[in-house]
Write a structure and sequence with these properties.
Blueprint: E1 6-11, H1 17-29, E2 33-38, H2 48-55, H3 73-80, E3 83-89, H4 91-99, H5 105-112, E4 116-121, H6 125-129, H7 131-143, E5 147-148, E6 152-155, E7 161-165, H8 169-182, E8 190-195, E9 200-201, E10 207-208, H9 215-226, E11 230-235, E12 247-250, H10 254-265, E13 270-273, E14 280-282, E15 301-303, H11 307-313, E16 319-326, H12 330-340, E17 345-350, E18 362-369, E19 374-381, H13 382-396
Parallel strand pairs: 1-2, 1-3, 3-4, 4-5, 8-11, 8-13, 11-12, 13-16, 16-17
Antiparallel strand pairs: 6-7, 9-10, 14-15, 17-18, 18-19
Helix pairs in contact: 1-2, 1-8, 3-5, 4-7, 9-13
Bound molecules: ligand PMT.
C-alpha cells in the first residue's frame, strides 16, 4: 500500500532519468505523496516542469534557492520523507554518498534523512563492474542500510550490452510496495540471527575458519530491524559494521557461538542461522605457538556442538530457519537438514555458483519449508534475498505480506 506514503524521488544525471517521469507518475497513481529533487546534471536529461506536473509538487533543484515558507529545504525534505528512491542512482551519486560528500541538495538531503533509502543504479556496465563502485555500494548497504534494487541487464544507451540498465518503473513500484507492506510486520518479535564464520584455534596465532563474510546474516539482521523486530545478532569475526539498532554479540569459536545462542534463545520468537559454523575443532588448542619440528603433522579434530540441531530439540513455538551451503545434491541435503534439525524453513545456496554463497554481494538458491514447499531464488542482492526470506517467515507467524 503506497497510499499516503511520503516518497522523495531523487533523480541523478543519467540517460535513464527519462524513466523517472514514469516512476513518479506510477507512484502518484498508487496514492503516494511524491516530491522530487533533481541534481543539476539530471536537468540535462529531463526538465523540472515535467516532474512538477507529474508529482503535483514544486521540484527542488538548488541548495541555495530562496527558502519556501522559511524552511531549510534539505532539512525539511529530509524530515518529510518516509522513503527516498534514488533513480537513476549514478556512480557519482553512489560514490559521493559512500564518502560522506554532501555538495548538492540531493546528497545533503539524503545524508540528513532517517528515511529508508532505495537506490536504483543505472550506469555503463564497466562502470558498474568497477571495484570502486562495488565497494561504494557495499559500504552504503552495510553501513547505511541502503537497499539497492537492480541494475538489470540488457542493451544500454551507450551501445553496450550488459548489467547497468535501470530497473523498469513498474518493477521499482512493486519493490517499494513490497517494502512498505512489510514494514513493521515484525513489531513485537525478537529475532536471533547468527552470521559469519567461526574460528577454531590451533594455537595463539593459527586457526581454522571458512570464507563467510557475514553479508547474508547482516543483511537479514538489518532488514528484520527495519521491520520493527528486536534483533540479536550473534556473529563470528567479520569486517562488517553491525547494522544500526541491533543487539550485537561478537563471538569467535563455534563453542562461543553455542553459548551465546543458548543465552538468548529463550527470549526469541524466530531464529535464523546464517552462520557458517565449523563442524569440527582441533582436539587440542596449544597455549604456545606450535614449532615446526617435524615434516608432517596430523591434526586430531573433535565435533563441535550442532547449535541448530540442539535448538530443534527445544523448539517450542519458535520459528527455526537454517541455511545450507551445498555443492552437490542441494535440494536433497537441504530436505534432510529440515528433518534432522527440526526446522520450519531452510535456505539452500549452491556455493559452486559464481555470485552465490560465501563472500559475494549476491546469492541464489532455494527456500524449502517443512510442508514440502519449495521456491527457487534467482541471483539477487543479499539484502533483497533477506527481505524475501523475512516475507516467507512473516507468512509463518501469520503476518502475510501479500
Ligand atoms: O556470510 P556470507 O559470505 O554472506 O555467506 C553466506 C553463507 C554462504 C555462509 C550462508 O548463506 C550459508 O549458507 N550459511 C550456512 C553455512 C553452513 O554452515 O551450512 P551447513 O550446511 O554446514 O549448516 C546447516 C545449518 O546448521 C546452518 O544454518 C548452520 O548455521 C547450522 N549449523 C551448522 C553446524 C553447526 N555445528 N552448528 C550449526 O548451527
Amino acid at each position: 500500500m503506497l497510499k499516503g506514503k511520503r516518497i522523495l524521488v531523487g533523480i541523478c544525471g543519467g540517460i535513464a532519468a527519462y524513466k523517472s517521469a514514469d516512476l513518479v507518475s506510477r507512484l502518484k497513481k498508487k496514492g503516494a505523496c511524491v516530491k522530487v529533487i533533481m541534481t543539476k546534471n539530471a536537468g540535462e536529461f529531463i526538465t523540472p516542469i515535467t516532474l512538477a506536473s507529474l508529482s503535483g509538487n514544486k521540484v527542488a533543484t538548488d541548495m541555495f534557492s530562496c527558502p519556501q515558507d522559511w524552511d531549510i529545504q534539505h532539512i525539511s525534505l529530509a524530515q518529510w520523507a518516509e522513503y527516498i528512491i534514488i533513480a537513476p542512482a549514478t556512480a557519482n551519486f553512489i560514490g559521493k554518498a559512500a564518502s560522506g560528500i554532501a555538495d548538492d541538495l540531493l546528497t545533503t538531503t539524503v545524508m540528513a534523512s532517517k528515511a529508508m533509502v532505495i537506490a536504483v543504479p543505472a550506469m555503463n556496465t564497466n562502470m558498474y563492474n568497477n571495484p570502486i563502485v562495488g565497494r561504494n555500494i557495499e559500504s552504503l548497504a552495510t553501513h547505511n542500510g541502503y537497499l539497492f534494487f537492480g541494475p538489470a541487464s540488457g542493451h544500454l544507451a551507450c551501445g553496450d550490452t550488459g548489467t547497468g540498465k535501470m530497473e523498469e518503473p513498474t518493477a521499482i513500484v512493486e519493490y517499494v510496495e513490497r517494502l512498505t507492506n512489510a514494514s513493521r510486520s515484525y513489531e513485537g518479535k525478537t529475532v536471533l540471527v547468527t552470521a559469519g564464520p567461526t574460528r577454531e584455534a590451533l594455537d595463539p596465532v593459527r586457526f581454522l575458519t571458512n570464507g563467510s563474510s557475514g553479508k547474508m546474516g547482516y543483511s537479514i539482521a538489518g532488514a528484520a530491524a527495519a521491520r520493527g523486530a528486536r534483533v540479536i545478532l550473534i556473529s563470528g569475526p567479520t569486517h562488517l559494521q553491525p547494522p544500526a539498532s541491533v543487539e550485537f554479540v561478537p563471538v569467535v569459536s563455534a563453542v562461543d557461538m553455542y553459548n551465546a545462542v543458548m543465552d538468548s534463545y529463550k527470549e526469541c520468537d524466530i531464529v535464523i542461522k546464517t552462520a557458517a559454523v565449523s563442524d569440527y575443532r582441533p582436539a587440542v588448542a596449544y597455549n604456545h605457538k606450535m614449532k615446526k619440528t617435524q615434516n608432517e603433522i596430523s591434526l586430531d579434530m573433535v565435533r563441535n556442538p550442532d547449535i541448530l540441531a540442539q535448538l530443534g530439540k527445544d523448539k517450542g513455538k519458535r520459528i527455526l530457519v537454517g541455511f545450507a551451503a551445498e555443492s552437490i545434491d542441494i535440494i536433497e541435503y537441504a530436505k534432510d537438514k529440515i528433518k534432522k534439525k527440526n526446522l520450519d524453513m531452510i535456505v539452500a545456496n549452491d556455493i559452486t555458483q559464481e555470485g552465490a554463497g560465501f563472500n559475494s554481494n549476491t546469492n541464489e538458491g532455494f527456500i524449502l519449508d517443512s510442508n514440502g514447499g519449495m521456491e527457487q531464488l534467482t541471483r539477487m542482492d543479499k539484502m533483497e534475498m533477506a527481505n524475501i526470506i523475512l516475507d516467507k517467515i512473516a507468512c509463518l507467524f501469520g503476518k502475510d505480506n501479500q
